[in-house]
Write a structure and sequence with these properties.
Blueprint lengths: L2 H25 L4 H14 L4 E8 L5 E4 L4 E3 L5 H14 L7 E3 L20 E3 H10 L3 H11 L1 H11 L10 H10 L10 H8 L4 H11 L9 H14 L3 E3 H12 L6 H11 L18 E9 L2 E9 L5 E9 L4 H19 L11
Antiparallel strand pairs: 1-2, 1-9, 3-6, 4-5, 7-8, 8-9
Helix pairs in contact: 2-13, 3-5, 3-6, 4-5, 7-10, 9-10
Length: about 350
């Protein structure tokens, strides 16, 4: 070997030695995404639907994703975007927390747990409506807020803070109407009361038959298969959808105080901490010492839970998950719970509770 060859070999050996010495430091980086990937792969094998997950540890920037680049239907997860728009409008002075909005007959919706038909004629503050929208996922409260701020304003706000990956957001009433339109264009004429009545028809086959009566389809009875095909066509339209990559980034922006203002972002987080829906989803898999700020979404063969976990040392972790095409919602929710538990089990040792100070 030539002298220059010896020098090259020595240089390479030194480089390799330095690299070997640096490996332990590199390995000190948490390997939780690898373990979480193994768990998601295992769960996916026994699940009859599809899983999309986005997890990011904000203190380190380390993240794990699975099917997070493909848009998914967010269902009531879009209420986070309505929440952001309300705060945006308040920040500009175009809306006030104390402003009273009237609840009319035209505002009755299915999936309304606080605003009931017997309350028609009453007025409620924006603050009350936001609370019911986020805590109970009340659809009537949501659509009252959407009507007040305007759907164009909501979509402009979504693009401002969420980016172009977010598809067009609609009112809850339009979600229903757009689904039924996939069966027959005459469904565009359904009233809000007819749509609310349809939601009460169970099982799906009964709802399909009732839809046929409402739109005057006397010569053919619609079936549950027709209605399911309508839901699927609606999901394929992309309305009220976004990839979990984009949703995760938006949640991170809220946590970092970058949405509307630092104060508004903190208030949004506190409101999301009071969410009472989805008790069998993320929340069910977390120990009591982990605080959850989130919003759930539910529709036929679709569930989402979009949130931020706060570990004992106040370190935030974005955790967003959506499942689709499953046969059992109960089993799908149990899967969400197990993946949330696995995530907490992997991250909690990395973020132990701080020692109490004297």
């Amino acid at each position: 070997m030539t002298p220059s060859g010896h020098r090259s070999a020595i240089s390479l050996s030194v480089t390799c030695l330095l690299a070997a010495l640096l490996v332990p430091a590199a390995r000190a980086k948490p390997a939780w995404p690898i373990s979480l990937q193994a768990e998601v792969t295992r769960e996916a094998r026994g699940f009859d639907g599809e899983i999309a997950v986005y997890v990011k540890e904000l203190s380190t920037g380390i993240r794990y994703t699975h099917n997070a680049a493909t848009p998914v239907y967010l269902a009531s997860g879009i209420k986070i975007m309505v929440l952001i728009t309300v705060f945006e409008e308040i920040s500009t002075g175009r809306l006030q927390w104390a402003e009273q909005l009237g609840f009319g007959k035209e505002d009755i919706r299915d999936g309304a747990y606080k605003l009931l038909p017997k309350q028609v004629g009453m007025r409620f503050s924006v603050k009350q409506l936001v609370g019911w929208m986020m805590e109970k996922s009340d659809n009537a409260a949501t659509d009252l807020l959407i009507k007040r701020v305007g759907i164009q304003t909501i979509n402009a706000t979504v693009q401002k803070y969420g980016g172009p990956e977010f598809c067009w957001i609609t009112s809850i009433l339009d979600v229903r109407r757009n689904i039924y339109e996939q069966i027959d264009q005459r469904a565009v004429g359904l009233t809000n009361l007819q749509i609310a009545e349809l939601a009460k028809k169970r099982p799906l086959s009964r709802r399909a038959r009732h839809l046929g009566k409402l739109i005057g389809k006397k010569n053919k009875k619609y079936t549950s298969r027709d209605l399911w095909k309508a839901f699927r066509a609606y999901y394929d339209s992309g309305l009220n959808s976004a990839p979990l990559d984009a949703v995760g980034k938006l949640l991170e922006s809220i946590e970092r105080g970058e949405v509307v203002s630092p104060k508004a972002s903190r208030q949004m987080i506190e409101i999301m901490k009071r969410c009472q829906t989805g008790k069998r989803r993320i929340r069910a898999g977390l120990p009591d010492k982990v605080v959850l700020a989130h919003k759930t979404g539910t529709q036929l063969k679709r569930i989402c839970d979009l949130g931020i976990l706060y570990l004992p040392d106040e370190q935030p972790v974005v955790f967003a998950i959506c499942l689709k095409e499953f046969s059992s919602r109960r089993k799908a929710e149990a899967l969400v719970s197990r993946l949330a538990k696995k995530t907490a089990d992997l991250l909690l040792p990395l973020h132990p509770e701080p020692e109490p100070t004297e």
